[in-house]
Amino acid sequence: MDDIDAIKKTLHARRPRTAGEAYSHYMRSAVLIPLFIENGGYKILFTERSHNVEHHKGQISFPGGVVDKKDKSFLETALRESYEEIGLLSEDVEILGQLDEECTVTSHFVIHPFAGLIPYPYPFRINRDEVESLIAIPVRSLSGKQDLVTVDDLTYHGTIYEYEGYTIWGATASITENLIRIINENLGSSGK
């Protein structure tokens, strides 16, 4: 069994943790965590959000967004939004599985994350209204630490990741931490 099959098997065998009834009034959204292999190592593709979007301006995130009434599932939302934001075709994504739901406390979203393997290189088409840039980070470079981040006069305490001047925090950091834990449990140092 190869590395990707091990991750896929693990994600399909576990039941993702849900946010719970306390968050039932939050808006529903979904994201795709694009993984790809380059030079024998795994990388995660993040987006830097533009300053034109309504929520989370300039923050590091995954492609995704709010569930549309036409979406038949949270996965469909994640794939639709990934196409709209970065031009990633759904047929080019091998879905590995769903991770635990995460909540954004300040903007009141429940996020449904899905990990997917994508081909690389890829002819991305960035929607500049929503995405400033793409950031590919090697899994081996993601070492989280507990810290404080202040954004818009709000202080966040939790795991953050720093990479080449970018800071990943909040729900995106929590989703990243969950995925890295799963990768490390299944791949050990080979995923790094």
- The CATH class, by name, is Alpha Beta
Spell the H/E element sequence.
HEEEEHEEEEEEEH
Shape: globular
What ranges have pLDDT less than 50 throughout 5 or more consecutive residues? none
CATH homologous superfamily (4th level) name:
Nucleoside Triphosphate Pyrophosphohydrolase
Name the CATH architecture. Alpha-Beta Complex
The radius of gyration computed from the alpha-carbon positions, rounded to a whole number of angstroms, is 16 Å
Percentage of residues in DSSP E strands: 35-45%
Biggest sheet character: 8 strands, mixed
Distance between the termini: 18 Å
> How many domains, as an integer?
1
What percent of the residues sit in helical stretches (DSSP H or I)? 10-25%
Overall SS class: alpha+beta
The count of β-strands is 11
CATH topology (level 3) name: Nucleoside Triphosphate Pyrophosphohydrolase
How many distinct helices? 3
Report the mean per-residue pLDDT as an integer: 91
